[in-house]
Amino acid sequence: MQPKMLLVDVGRCTGCRICELACSWAHEGVFNPLKSRISVITWRKEGIDIPMVCQQCDTPLCQDTCPTAAIFRDGKTGALVVEENRCIGCRMCIVACPFGGFSIHTERHVAIKCDLCEGEPACVKYCPMGAIEYVPVDKVGLAKKRAGAKRLSELLSLVTKGVS
Q1: C-alpha closest to that of 4 among 78, 71, 60
Q2: Whether residue 164 has pLDDT greater than 60
Q3: Domain total for the chain?
Q4: Phi, psi at 128, each rounded to 5°
Q5: Looking at the predicted structure, is the pLDDT value of residue 162 above 70?
Q6: For residues 104 and 94, is the Cβ–Cβ distance under 8 A?
Q7: Helix, strand, or coil here: 156?
Q8: Angle at the Cα of 55 (from 129 to 6), degrees rounded to 5?
Q9: Is residue 82 part of a domain?
Q10: Is residue 147 domain-resident?
Q11: Distance CA 121, CA 105 (A)
């Protein structure tokens, strides 16, 4: 199976936080953003909402820093997963993660993070704007290049209109 990851289109995110609710329901059976493995970060002044989630790194610093080896890669999905019975809640994974992909469960006091819902991410399924996609890893680079080219094309169009 080809590895996949979550791809977030920031331009489509409205900040509705349904992804957080879908995640907490899928994992905990409750609608509670504090128990979600995805977090929408809002910059009100700028009007930007960005869902932040584990990037399932090829070289995971979180796994390297875990003193109890509680973080492992799932062979089926390729997701980094926390084995809760081994986690001591030391928060070293939180410190090591450059993307803010971890949090601490409010009741069990163990690290939680996106596990890709065993290959069927709830956040993707319920995002009403299609801002989160579950795509093959090799397609992510191409999607980013296309988006960048489109933005550059729009910018050049604005610049050339100003010159005429």
Answers
A1: 78
A2: no
A3: 1
A4: -70, -20
A5: no
A6: yes
A7: helix
A8: 30
A9: yes
A10: no
A11: 19
Does any domain span residue 116? yes
Range 91-119 burial, b when 16+ CB lie within 10 A, else e: ebbbebbeeebbbbbeeeebbbbbbbbee
Closest C-alpha to 18, from 109, 120, 125: 125
Per-residue pLDDT tens over the stretch 72-107 = 999 999 999 999 999 999 999 999 999 999 999 999
Alpha-carbon torsion (7, 19, 103, 116), positive or negative: negative
CATH of the domain at 27: 3.30.70.20
Element (H, E) at 18: helix 18-28
- Among 44, 52, 67, smallest CA distance to 20 is for 52
CA-to-CA distance for 14 and 35, rounded, in angstroms? Answer: 21
Tokens standing for residue 38: 């995805």
pLDDT at 70: 98
Q: How far is CA 96 from the centre of its chain?
A: 16
Tell the residue number behind the tokens 């960048």, with chain if given.
148
pLDDT for the residue numbered 27: 98
From the list 87, 100, 117, the residue with the least C-alpha distance to 51 is 100
CA dist 76 and 66 (Å) reads 22
Q: Can you tell me the distance from the alpha carbon of 9 to that of 52, in angstroms, rounded to the nearest whole number?
A: 11
